[in-house]
Amino acid sequence: MTDEIDEMEEIIIEFIAEAEESLDKIEPLFVELEQKGEDKDLLNDIFRSMHTIKGAAGFLGFQLIVSVAHSSENIMKKLRDREISLSKELMDVILKSIDMLRLLLEHLKAKDGMEEDIAPLVKELEDALNTAISGTGIAEEPGEPVESGTAATVAENIEPREEPETAGIPESAQNPDAQTGSSPAGQQETAEVAQAAKDNAQKPKETPQNLRVDIERIDKVMDLAGEVVLVRNRLLNISKYFNRNYSVDSQTETLMETVSFLDRVTSDLQIAVMKMRMQPIKKVLSKFPRLVRDISASVNKEVELIIHGEGTEVDKSVIEHIGDPMTHILRNSIDHGLESTEERIAKGKPPKGTVIINIFQKGNQIVIEVSDDGQGIDIEKLKKKAIEKGLLTEEDARKMSDDAATDIIFMPGSSTKEFATELSGRGVGMDVVKTNISLLNGYVEVSTEKDAGTTFKICIPLTLAIIQALMVEVSGAKYAIPLSPIEETRKVSKEEIENITGQNVIVIRDKVCPLFELNILLGNGSNGNNGNEPDHKYIVVIAMGDRRFCIAVDSLLGQEEVVIKTLEGIDTTSSYVLGATITGDGKVVFILDVAGMSRKLFELIKL
Amino acid sequence: METSTVAENVLQLVSFTLANEEYAVDILNVQEINRITEITKVPNAPDHVEGVVNLRGKVIPVINLRKKFGLPEKGAGDTTRIIIMDIQGVTNGLVVDSVSEVLRIPSGIVEPPPVTANMSSKFIKGIAKLENRLIILIDIDKMMGEAVQV
């Protein structure tokens, strides 16, 4: 190792990233361990990861991390060698040590030079170990305390293979399911992780090659790919023009061929770049087993968490933003959804509640379902609460369908729990969930059945950067409507449009659907036809969750793949616009925010 | 102001006209000056937001300074320009009647803005007195800061 600060810095950054990954990996294993009992493979795995952290930290001189890792490794060693048996107390203290390790890593990352007082925790770990040893009746001397900072400890902790210059590298080779997430190993199911990690340890050389790339570089490539898409669209337009007007020229044919080749390559490029940003959603899920364990312990309920489809890949931006809403829903399900153990037994349900997270891809959307087998949402109670809090009038509540009523929980300021608990019901309600998800251009809906449970269904687009859109035109201006919420488009005659108490509606397959003029929604005043209503109109039927409405436009221009450009410098909260795109002819076209539109419109007409 | 000091106490400004008055902004904020291109109207936007334009693949908002300053409207003409400015990291375009020149003036001739009840006077950093003309120096950060919040 050289004395150069840059190099040292890089090694430390590498170490932090790897240590965090190791912690992410072992945390769910602990919870699994608790469920499965003492599984030797699992224990081995945990032990090894902890040992690696300790070794690398020791080498770099992070004594606090070494001490914590060492103490909890001691416990795992004894567990692995079956000298002590696993207890809840032991698990609690081990999980605490993981929290502490995370905290210490945070300090390293922030370079704030802050230190945590780890002495109480180390003592707690040792005490727990001693208790466990005396509990099992095996006479054993207590885990040797760490000799702080001595060369002996450090040397002992470093395995021979870890040459100083390459300290960070062997670990990265062992962690194929790391950062990039593009490797097949990244899609393993949790159950397989133990086995896979073991395999990896045995043949580290054969693991797929991974590269850690700064996300900014990928985003830059993404931006450039977006530019290429726009240029491709322009070229397609130009080549069509040449094909129309100069089709006799042999060069025109060459141009057409070249452009269509560019077209294909561009599409491939776009997909390839998008995949670079895709990561298994497992990254978010790994914290949930622990979270569920902690929540259920604090509300005294027994909960089993089942996760399906954690290998599903989603865009990085989705990974970043989906964690909080999911955590909130999980808390809600356990705290409010599931009944207490006694209640469950009284109802003849299994005493242990189940929460299932099911993730799958549907078209170009990711669907995340969180279901519990609890008591369901009491709709009457919900309505009553909403009336009390002034969120609804009594008349509205009476008219409201049950489906519509469940949406009350997404209103700001509604919480059905009588008393705020430690976990949820702190005034921060499900409305936050809804807001966060609509920021991702997605939507959330809830279905519930009394005593059978509640399911939250989140739908979000796979990526946020490029979307399929329907191009429409009103009064000469083009707009793009995201394709995913569009149910259908129709040509309707004037006679089909009816007016009920001032609201235009149209009947589609026996269902009444409110109809809005896009022109009026966008603040362009009249519908631009000077009172001369054309005989026919085109309508776009939008379905957001169970809400459905129609937008009337002058004409439909066709489907296009558009790159979303964010708007900086102007406030678009009231303009129903989620971004803009640049079309083939270089014009700026706004992409409409139909989710926002739906929210606003249904607030107004209160359907 | 300090940032524009090239030699001691010299301000470099870009001057432009709006309704027969001459204004100027700090040259360091100015990225480029373009002829007026096709502007796409922003739905339900405040009046002074003229729309957005495509600046080499980037979508940037365009502010109509006449409307912003409460001056009478005037359609785009031959001399109409969009001044592309970088204001605190955000790129914006300002529509002006015409762009005049790049000025180098000693900061000594800039006087503080007159105290008036005029709402746009709070965007004025000072008034530069040249031989036979007055140039209004605009505090662009203050002005756009407000425009963004609207």
Structure description:
The complex is a heterodimer of chains A (607) and B (150). Chain A has 607 residues and is of the alpha+beta class. Chain A contains 20 helices and 18 strands. In chain A, a hairpin with a 2-residue loop joins strand 8 (466-474) and strand 9. In chain A, 38% of the residues are buried. Mean pLDDT of chain A is 75; it is low at 137-194, 196-205 and 416-427. By secondary structure, chain B is mainly β. Chain B contains 2 helices and 11 strands. In chain B, strands 8-1-2-11-10-9 form a 6-stranded mixed beta sheet, with no helix packed on it. In chain B, strands 3-6-7-5-4 form a 5-stranded mixed beta sheet. Chain B is globular and about 45 Å long. The two termini of chain B are 25 Å apart. In chain B, 34% of the residues are buried. The model of chain B has no long low-confidence stretch (mean pLDDT 82). At the A-B interface, helix 9, strand 17 and strand 18 of A face strand 4, strand 5, strand 7 and helix 2 of B.
What count of structural domains of chain A?
4
Q: What percentage of amino acids of chain A are in beta strands?
A: 15-25%
CATH H-tier superfamily of the largest domain in chain A:
HPT domain
The CATH H-level homologous superfamily of chain B: CheA-289, Domain 4
pLDDT < 50 runs, ≥5 residues of chain B: none
Structural class of chain A: alpha+beta
Number of domains of chain B: 1
Percentage of residues in helical conformation of chain B: under 10%
The CATH topology annotation of chain B reads as OB fold (Dihydrolipoamide Acetyltransferase, E2P)
Please tag this protein with its features.
heterodimer, A: 607 residues, alpha+beta, Four Helix Bundle (Hemerythrin (Met), subunit A), Helix Hairpins, Heat Shock Protein 90, 4 domains, five-stranded mixed β-sheet, 20 helices, 18 strands, flat, B: 150 residues, mainly beta, OB fold (Dihydrolipoamide Acetyltransferase, E2P), six-stranded mixed β-sheet, 11 strands
